């Protein structure tokens, strides 16, 4: 045994090209996964969490090479590959993304995957037994009796009965199907399993059973696991370490206990605040993330989370309530993208029996503030006057002018990409707030 | 757990050296053996049975009439169409009937689903009847022969004015010739037994159905899955060819060939089979594309299985239900097309098909409507049965949809 991790992912990227025209000219790329790195030790479970569309599943399928990664390395040291060192040209012999056909097929025996939807992860026209046994056949076990014996034994081990071998998927419940899927993932005796939201399609009552089965199996066979989920409470149950992903990047990674008790990234805080607590009297800040995940085709500059971050850093000149600052930046972004349309507000206010042009500018201005959670007056006088000018311009329909006025509000978060901060014990986060003032290009204002 | 029991974590994969993930299934072996046998007999027919000299009438038939099984005393000349028919029956047996037997659980599930649909069950019964009688009937029943002496005999329970038939086989009551059991469905204007023609017509309809289906399904499925799985340029080229073929006037090509070489059923079936697979190919392609996104396909890809295996063992079986439904709509169109061509006089008028019979009775509609009506009814009910069956199969063959709706 060596001290190298079983799996180490380095700067993995998966970009989907966006093409146009008959010649399929590439005009851009959706950066589903944009440079993630982590390690998984032997027997360890790493949780990968994040909202829908943040690239978790793409990361998984790139790691296990269901899809070809665009860039980066995935070094797998299992299956008797331990101790190999890098080649002269810097490439690694254990890099999954570079495996040739034969080695890839051998790797398939070492790493398997459990999918999210049990109802679509089994071929409806094959008996479940043959679905599982097919894995053995593909890898050259031509002895039919032996295949059947192995699969029947395995079905019993995952809590089913050997007789189920000849049944079809439609005869099983979701939980049972997921057990069969687990059996299929196990049958080649892998060392590493990717579980892509294995319980999110199941009833709450069955979740616990499947999770404890996963846990038992993992302990019995010393499996390592990459556990993908958007459910923080499940992750807390299952994972030794957790990596939080936002828009194709990992924003925080660390031991589950550390991350849950002392989250360092505002996004992690927001995710954690969404876990329901059994105690209704417990006073806890409920952080609501506004808006949707931005498009991975043109991710926001600087810190990718700055468009939604509730702790977005204020620029040095102002001293506002944090919520007002957030509202102000959101307002600025909406004006910039042209999503604010004063005439439609006018239309909405006028109702059916009034002419939209009769709605006076004052009403429109008040409505704009209400709609974007802006207070009647900002506590900072400079900021307030700028905002007032911008709103005036908007009400008069001069969107360009409003845009120009608002552009004085800016945050360091959109200018600078945060570097990783080490909080000890392998707990890393990528947030400008955690970097000391000296490290940052902009002077840090007090933000709390 | 018994010590000698095989378990998954004790498999030494280093020892298992088998490279191939292909197994010869019994179905394939049966198909192989059957095809070999067919080829042997066909070769025998081609090389050894050439020309017949009939001593009784002192005439050499040359290659006009070559009874393949003359040795065992069966004077039937096996035609190209028969070879194709036999092959398609073989395929049908090996890949439709045998799997139903091999997977009793799935079959009984289909059966339960089918049973709910009464019209479909009646249709299935009708089609099995047509199939069995059509295949076996011509072996025991003599081919229809013209006999002017018994022309225009009415069917049982019906009668005809004695001015039409030359001689009335049954009793004559009040100047009307009554039908007899000797000609249960009556006879045509040239004295052919309509019952015989209908039985022979069943076989012709079944041949049209099976052979055209064989051609359509094999080409359509191959093109569809290849296009879906290869993608890119291959997909583009194949699908654009499908577009071209779809707009190709098969009917005019048929007319052209017909004027050059003359009409034959073989020509009809092969030509229309070869020019009718576009719809199936498209159908299969879109279905295969949808299936490729399914997680079970990803799971099989993750097992390291070859593309051939994924397509053959997962994509094709899972598109089978839509292919079968597609077939049940295609077969009636072929049978109907044959009848239409025969009616227009564009078919082979020497064969005893339903369409030819319908056309033959055209001029006698006024006094002997049964000549047209009897085959017309058979044609109508057969096509109706296919449509009902297709509808029921669509519901029954989709366990997924069923499980989701429950």
From TrEMBL, chain A:
<dbReference type="GO" id="GO:0016887">
    <property type="term" value="F:ATP hydrolysis activity"/>
</dbReference>
<dbReference type="GO" id="GO:0005524">
    <property type="term" value="F:ATP binding"/>
</dbReference>
<dbReference type="InterPro" id="IPR017871">
    <property type="entry name" value="ABC_transporter-like_CS"/>
</dbReference>
<dbReference type="Pfam" id="PF08352">
    <property type="entry name" value="oligo_HPY"/>
</dbReference>
<dbReference type="InterPro" id="IPR027417">
    <property type="entry name" value="P-loop_NTPase"/>
</dbReference>
<dbReference type="GO" id="GO:0015833">
    <property type="term" value="P:peptide transport"/>
</dbReference>
<feature type="compositionally biased region" description="Polar residues">
    <location>
        <begin position="427"/>
        <end position="436"/>
    </location>
</feature>
<keyword id="KW-0813">Transport</keyword>
<comment type="similarity">
    <text>Belongs to the ABC transporter superfamily.</text>
</comment>
<protein>
    <submittedName>
        <fullName>Peptide/nickel transport system ATP-binding protein</fullName>
    </submittedName>
</protein>
<dbReference type="GO" id="GO:0055085">
    <property type="term" value="P:transmembrane transport"/>
</dbReference>
<dbReference type="InterPro" id="IPR013563">
    <property type="entry name" value="Oligopep_ABC_C"/>
</dbReference>
<feature type="compositionally biased region" description="Basic and acidic residues">
    <location>
        <begin position="413"/>
        <end position="425"/>
    </location>
</feature>
<keyword id="KW-0067">ATP-binding</keyword>
<dbReference type="InterPro" id="IPR050319">
    <property type="entry name" value="ABC_transp_ATP-bind"/>
</dbReference>
<dbReference type="InterPro" id="IPR003439">
    <property type="entry name" value="ABC_transporter-like_ATP-bd"/>
</dbReference>
<feature type="region of interest" description="Disordered">
    <location>
        <begin position="411"/>
        <end position="448"/>
    </location>
</feature>
<dbReference type="Pfam" id="PF00005">
    <property type="entry name" value="ABC_tran"/>
</dbReference>
<feature type="domain" description="ABC transporter">
    <location>
        <begin position="7"/>
        <end position="272"/>
    </location>
</feature>
<dbReference type="InterPro" id="IPR003593">
    <property type="entry name" value="AAA+_ATPase"/>
</dbReference>
<keyword id="KW-0547">Nucleotide-binding</keyword>
From TrEMBL, chain B:
<dbReference type="InterPro" id="IPR000515">
    <property type="entry name" value="MetI-like"/>
</dbReference>
<comment type="similarity">
    <text>Belongs to the binding-protein-dependent transport system permease family.</text>
</comment>
<feature type="transmembrane region" description="Helical">
    <location>
        <begin position="251"/>
        <end position="277"/>
    </location>
</feature>
<feature type="transmembrane region" description="Helical">
    <location>
        <begin position="208"/>
        <end position="230"/>
    </location>
</feature>
<dbReference type="InterPro" id="IPR035906">
    <property type="entry name" value="MetI-like_sf"/>
</dbReference>
<protein>
    <submittedName>
        <fullName>Peptide/nickel transport system permease protein</fullName>
    </submittedName>
</protein>
<dbReference type="GO" id="GO:0055085">
    <property type="term" value="P:transmembrane transport"/>
</dbReference>
<keyword id="KW-1003">Cell membrane</keyword>
<keyword id="KW-0812">Transmembrane</keyword>
<feature type="transmembrane region" description="Helical">
    <location>
        <begin position="83"/>
        <end position="101"/>
    </location>
</feature>
<feature type="transmembrane region" description="Helical">
    <location>
        <begin position="28"/>
        <end position="49"/>
    </location>
</feature>
<keyword id="KW-0813">Transport</keyword>
<feature type="transmembrane region" description="Helical">
    <location>
        <begin position="122"/>
        <end position="143"/>
    </location>
</feature>
<dbReference type="Pfam" id="PF00528">
    <property type="entry name" value="BPD_transp_1"/>
</dbReference>
<feature type="transmembrane region" description="Helical">
    <location>
        <begin position="367"/>
        <end position="389"/>
    </location>
</feature>
<dbReference type="InterPro" id="IPR025966">
    <property type="entry name" value="OppC_N"/>
</dbReference>
<keyword id="KW-1133">Transmembrane helix</keyword>
<dbReference type="Pfam" id="PF12911">
    <property type="entry name" value="OppC_N"/>
</dbReference>
<dbReference type="GO" id="GO:0005886">
    <property type="term" value="C:plasma membrane"/>
</dbReference>
<feature type="domain" description="ABC transmembrane type-1">
    <location>
        <begin position="202"/>
        <end position="390"/>
    </location>
</feature>
<dbReference type="InterPro" id="IPR050366">
    <property type="entry name" value="BP-dependent_transpt_permease"/>
</dbReference>
<keyword id="KW-0472">Membrane</keyword>
């Amino acid at each position: 045994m060596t001290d190298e991790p079983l799996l180490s992912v380095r700067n993995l990227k998966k970009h989907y090209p966006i093409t146009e025209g008959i010649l399929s000219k590439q005009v851009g790329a959706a950066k589903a996964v944009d440079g993630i790195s982590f390690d998984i030790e032997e027997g360890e479970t790493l949780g990968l969490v994040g909202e829908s569309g943040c690239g978790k599943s793409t990361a998984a399928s790139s790691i296990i090479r269901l899809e070809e990664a665009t860039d980066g390395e995935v070094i797998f040291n299992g299956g008797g590959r331990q101790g190999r060192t890098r080649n002269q040209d810097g490439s690694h012999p254990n890099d999954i993304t570079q495996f040739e056909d034969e080695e890839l097929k051998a790797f398939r025996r070492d790493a398997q995957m459990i999918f999210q939807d049990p109802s679509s992860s089994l071929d409806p026209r094959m008996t479940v037994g043959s679905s599982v046994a097919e894995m053995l056949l593909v890898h050259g076990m031509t002895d039919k009796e032996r295949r059947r014996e192995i699969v029947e034994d395995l079905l019993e081990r995952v809590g089913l009965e050997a007789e189920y071998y000849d049944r079809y998927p439609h005869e099983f419940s979701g939980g049972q199907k997921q057990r069969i899927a687990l059996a299929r993932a196990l049958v080649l005796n892998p060392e590493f399993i990717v579980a892509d939201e294995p319980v999110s399609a199941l009833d709450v009552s069955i979740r616990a059973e499947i999770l404890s089965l996963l846990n038992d199996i993992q302990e019995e066979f010393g499996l390592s696991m990459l556990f993908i989920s958007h459910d923080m409470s499940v992750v807390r149950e299952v994972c030794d370490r957790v990596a939080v992903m936002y828009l194709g990047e990992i924003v925080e990674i660390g031991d589950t206990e550390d991350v849950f008790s002392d989250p360092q990234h505002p996004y992690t805080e927001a995710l954690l605040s969404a876990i329901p607590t059994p105690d209704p009297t417990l006073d806890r800040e409920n952080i609501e993330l506004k808006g949707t995940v931005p498009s991975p085709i043109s991710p926001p500059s600087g810190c990718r989370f700055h468009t939604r971050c509730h702790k977005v850093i204020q620029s040095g000149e102002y001293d506002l309530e944090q919520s007002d600052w957030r509202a102000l930046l959101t307002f600025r972004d909406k004006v910039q993208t042209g999503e604010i349309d004063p005439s439609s507000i006018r239309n909405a206010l006028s109702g059916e029996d009034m002419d939209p042009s009769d709605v006076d500018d004052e009403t429109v201005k008040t409505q704009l503030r209400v709609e974007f959670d802006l207070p009647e007056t900002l506590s900072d006088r400079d900021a307030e006057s700028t905002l007032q000018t911008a709103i005036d311009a908007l009400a008069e329909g001069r969107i360009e002018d409003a845009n120009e006025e608002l552009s004085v509000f800016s945050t360091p978060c959109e200018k600078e990409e945060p570097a990783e901060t080490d909080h000890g014990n392998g707990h890393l986060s990528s947030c400008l707030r955690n970097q000391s003032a000296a490290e940052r290009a902009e002077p840090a204002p007090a933000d709390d | 757990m018994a010590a000698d029991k095989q378990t998954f974590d004790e498999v030494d994969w280093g020892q298992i050296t088998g490279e191939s993930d292909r197994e010869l299934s019994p179905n394939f072996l049966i198909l192989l053996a059957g095809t070999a046998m067919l080829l042997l007999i066909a070769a025998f027919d081609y090389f050894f049975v050439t020309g017949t000299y009939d001593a009784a009438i002192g005439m050499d038939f040359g290659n006009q009439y070559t009874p393949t099984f003359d040795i065992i005393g069966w004077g039937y000349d096996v035609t190209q169409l028969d070879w194709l028919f036999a092959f398609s029956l073989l395929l049908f047996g090996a890949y439709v009937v045998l799997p139903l037997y091999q997977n009793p659980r799935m079959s009984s599930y289909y059966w339960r689903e089918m049973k709910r649909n009464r019209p479909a069950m009646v249709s299935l019964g009708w089609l099995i009847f047509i199939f069995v009688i059509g295949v076996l009937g011509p072996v025991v029943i003599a081919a229809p022969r013209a006999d002017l002496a018994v022309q225009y005999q009415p069917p049982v329970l019906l009668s005809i004015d004695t001015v039409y038939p030359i001689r009335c086989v049954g009793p004559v009551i009040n100047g009307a010739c009554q039908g007899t059991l000797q000609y249960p469905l009556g006879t045509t204007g040239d004295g052919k037994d309509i019952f015989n023609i209908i039985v022979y017509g069943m076989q012709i309809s079944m041949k049209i159905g099976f052979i055209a289906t064989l051609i359509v399904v094999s080409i359509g499925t191959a093109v569809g899955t290849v296009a879906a799985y290869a993608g890119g340029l291959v997909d583009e080229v194949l699908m654009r060819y499908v577009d071209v073929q779809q707009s190709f006037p098969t009917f005019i090509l048929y007319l052209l060939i017909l004027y050059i070489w003359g009409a034959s059923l073989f020509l009809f079936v092969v030509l229309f089979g070869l020019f009718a697979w576009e719809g199936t190919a498209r159908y299969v392609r879109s279905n295969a594309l949808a299936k490729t996104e399914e997680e079970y396909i990803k799971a099989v890809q993750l097992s390291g299985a070859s593309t051939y295996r994924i397509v053959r063992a997962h994509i094709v079986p899972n598109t089978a239900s839509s292919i079968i439904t597609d077939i049940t709509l295609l077969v009636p169109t072929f049978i109907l097309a044959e009848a239409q061509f025969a009616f227009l006089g564009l078919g082979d008028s020497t064969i005893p098909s339903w369409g030819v019979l319908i056309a033959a009775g055209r001029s006698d509609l006024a006094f002997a409507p049964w000549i047209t009506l009897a085959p017309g009814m058979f044609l109508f009910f057969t096509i109706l049965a296919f449509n009902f069956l297709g509808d029921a199969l669509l519901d029954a063959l989709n366990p997924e949809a069923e499980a989701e709706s429950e």
